[in-house]
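User: Before I run my own analysis I want an independent prediction to cross-check against. Here's the chain; please return only the structure tokens and, at the end, one sentence I can use as a sanity check.
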Amino acid sequence: MKNIKLIEVPSEIGAGTRGASLGIDAIKIAALDFMSNFFVHFPSEKIPAENKLLFEPIESPYAKRIKGVISMYDKVSKAVSESIKSNFFPVVLSGDHSTAGATIAGIKMAKPKSKLGVIWIDAHADLHTPYTTPSGNMHGTPLATAINEDNMDCAVHELDEATKKSWNYLKHTGRSGARVLPEDVVFISLRDYEREEKHLIDKYGMKVITTNEVRRKGPENIVRSVIRYLGDCTDIYVSFDVDSLDASISKGTGTPVSNGLREREAEDLISKFMQMRKICCFEISEVNPTLDKENLMAEIAFNILQRSVNVLMMN
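Assistant: Structure tokens:
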């Protein structure tokens, strides 16, 4: 049986739309509405955020609020690493997805010798860098920091020295060099990405599983093939951005995209992944209740969270 620890990261400085920092409380309210005492059961740690930066002018247009993101990387990677070293299974609830790069850094800090696989369930690839970003929002960059990538082949921006230095810091948090090899990343339900990101996916032959493939083969077969594909990884991290769900249900997130997963598909996929013993960390991100009616997105996220943790507890 795994000892679960909840790590709450109510940060939204990496997002372009406001409100994701309220996602964790929205999930807790969903739990209360379902009469669940889920949040009483597990030890939890709340990471102090840097959301005050939202009220200040932006210094780096191609890496907005990156100084705050550095601070979050330091805090989140330390919390994740210490949890794993204390034999906890970290379940990370985060506002925007930018801090997922820190979660990955934390896993590697705790397990420096591990060969880490990443299952990225997300409508977006999050492989931009400050050199390629169309928006400057840091929640589009966490996987690029994890694979230690600048993507200079596709660079469109010149960076000032301070931004360059900050970006290099993010890429080397916890250790220098790539924390994950690009071929050990699997995208599920990826459907909205720019050509700069496609360039990296093609260059490294990163594995992409479409929504239609999930529907055709069924969650069970997808999970089996992904675990087989990541067969030589010693540890696997699952990151679930709620915008992987179809736009018809994922209104409560900053970047909804059509042709996504149905609620049941996501739930089945994730709970089946959680049965696999190599899974070492799970993250849910980007619930934004300010964009939602009736707290629907948070309720769906809570259902997935509860079922996944139940599976972890049984294994």
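Sanity check: The CA atoms of residues 195 and 202 lie 10 Å apart.
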